[in-house]
Amino acid sequence: MEVNGREDDQYEESSEWFVKYLNRQGDWLEKTRGNLMVAATVIAGMSFQVMVNPPGGVWQSDNCTSGNQTSTGPVCKAKAGTAVLEHESSKRGLYLGMVISSTVSFSASMSLILLVISGLRLRY
């Protein structure tokens, strides 16, 4: 312990610096809220758009063939409005992976948007 009190001054200077640092961190967290909102909105919009307009497009009309003598009516391979990739057997797995990932990303981003809008504090 020093007689002049320099040790106490150094302690006060270092604690003041730390308090200023923590205050700046709090501001950074509040600014991050806006960035999270922008990113979540873009991801939600993109995943929604992928499901509304799937890659490969949608069938414009029913793809029906006239039934043969054993069946009673026409057999429809694809209905109008369903995704083209859903009916191609070679790409069905990729299409299902896209649907699952788009659903998960949409759900997660919408949850994040709702949490940010509700006023959840990021600091604690």
For the record, give the distance between the C-alpha atoms at the N and C termini, rounded to a whole number.
38 Å
The radius of gyration over CA amounts to 29 Å
Shape: rod-shaped
Instruction: Quote the beta fraction.
Output: 5-15%
The topology string of helices and strands comes to HEEHH
Q: Could you give the count of β-strands?
A: 2
Helix content class: 55-70%
Q: Can you summarize the main beta sheet?
A: 2 strands, antiparallel
Contiguous uncertain segments of 5+ residues: none
Question: Which strand order do you get reading across the main beta sheet?
Answer: 1-2
Overall pLDDT level: 78
How many distinct helices?
3
| Secondary structural class | mainly alpha
Give structural notes:
- This is PGG domain-containing protein.
- Keywords: ANK repeat, Membrane, Repeat, Transmembrane, Transmembrane helix.
- This protein has 124 residues and is mainly alpha-helical.
- Among the domains are: 10-53, no CATH class; 91-123.
- 63% of the residues lie in helices and 6% in strands.
- The chain has helices at 6-52, 84-87, 92-118, and strands at residues 63-65, 75-78.
- Helix 1 (6-52) packs across helix 3.
- The mean pLDDT is 78.
